Amino acid sequence: MMPPPRIGIDLGGSKIEILALAADGRELLRRRIATPRGDYPATLAAIAGLVAAFENSLGQPGSIGIGIPGAESLSGGLIKNANSTCLIGRPLRHDLQTLLQREIRLANDANCFTLSEACDGSGRGARSVFGVILGTGVGGGIVIDGHLLTGHQAIAGEWGHNPLPPASLDEWPGPPCYCGRSGCIETWLSGPGLAADHFRHHGQRLAAKEIEERAEAGDAACQASLERHEIRLGRALATVINLLDPEVIVLGGGLSNMPHLYRNLPAHCAPHVFSDHLATRILAPRHGDASGVRGAARLWPLTGEGLDPPPWPPEEAGQAD
């Protein structure tokens, strides 16, 4: 008898993507719909509808893993730190398990991205992988020896809300962040952060993609903005390397599509790394923007695959928040 499919769901602020993986990692089905923005009950109903339609097409039920733009509190099971603010303070796991009548597994979307790339993506075969999200926000995830590290407070890998190191005088105290602090890495290295930096220096309101396109066409101001961005990214990643010493760093999110990062980042990291040389490989994702949903499916490991999903139920994982 064939093992049941693993169903992954990537719950984003603008879209919900669902995917089914066969036991050998083959993609069986995939679908994407718009997220009911700001509407928690409608979001639950949309997920339940997608699962029902998928399982009807597959002819059997599957395991369900969900990547979310936030984290589940290990003390109370409520969602925290979510960019999709309608999720904050909600018992998402409980509500979905009630709707779907089965156990589900939740993880931060950056953790899902990293898990996917460590399993069968650019980090395959590496003992330690740090996954980076450079998009609307900045996040990260850690996989060590095939195990997803969530941390005692479910915030492992959240480097985006550390201050940019080492800040120069013209970078201090830095832009305000939605988390209540100023100068967070996210305010500098996200897509909106790049756009805001370009406006501060050059007075042009351009999206990150426009800055990249104009830089490729020879626009000096846009080239200067990309150079500032890559230098700051190199400094920020150097602190990750000094702390974790990962074998591989995989970049994800919209800004990871900029090819100059892979050419230039090693030189920007190296002066700040506490070593005589930089051995960490900085790579593009193998699965692109599908890594998040593939990683969500992999929150349920196959027997012998060696991956530990997040603990369930959440109260068994500890009481600290």
Question: What fraction of residues sit in β-strands?
Answer: 15-25%
Helicity range = 25-40%
Helix and strand composition category? alpha/beta
What is the H/E string? EEEHEEEHEHEEEHHHHEHEH
Estimated radius of gyration: 20 Å
Shape: globular
> What do the pLDDT scores average to?
90
Question: What distance lies between the first and last C-alpha atoms, to the nearest angstrom?
Answer: 42 Å
Largest sheet, strands/sense/barrel: 5 strands, mixed
Model regions low in confidence, pLDDT < 50 over at least 5 residues: 303-321
Major β-sheet strand ordering: 3-2-1-4-7
**Number of helix segments?**
9
Strand runs, count? 12
Features:
321 residues, globular
Could you give a quick summary of the protein structure above?
It contains nine helices and twelve strands.
